[in-house]
Write a structure and sequence with these properties.
By secondary structure, the chain is mainly beta. The chain has a single domain (2-136), classed as BH3618-like (Roll). It is 3% helix and 38% strand. The chain contains one helix and ten strands. It has one helix at residues 76-79; strands at residues 2-5, 9-12, 18-20, 33-38, 46-50, 57-61, 90-98, 103-114, 119-122, 134-136. The strands form two sheets. Strands 3, 4, 5, 6, 7, 8, 9 and 10 form an eight-stranded antiparallel sheet that branches. The longest helix is centred in the middle third of the chain and has 4 residues, at 76-79. The relative contact order is 0.20.
Length: 146
Amino acid sequence: MQILTTRFGPVTVEQQDRVEFPAGLVGLPQLKRFVLIRDPQAPGITWLQSTRDTAWAFALVSPRSILPDFQVRASVEQLRPIEVQDSQDIDVYAILNRTVRQVTANLQAPVLINRRRSLGVQLVLSDSLYEMRHVVNWVAELRMSA
């Protein structure tokens, strides 16, 4: 499958890089189908690119690269949409956001992707261990526009 993106131009996407979010993302329930694109200019950054509206893309990073002890405490009910059978199949990401002054990571609402089932969910963690705008100092310049 090939999609035209605002950040990377035309991109060929393999089947294993497609992800469906049955409930969409928090605040964006209409966006359900995405692809994962590794950023060739920023190792450690993966883009969650909408295939429905290619203007929407989110920079993702492993939360453990920010906080090595990061843990997701999720209920069975929260994980039901992504059909988890083995926790080893789950990749956990934090969405990055760039402002004029800094880059932050949303550690309070991680994105979980079941690689085996190509299903994703964004959780809102009820505990207050993590911040929604955790400052990240090591992230390379993000491609926020074409």
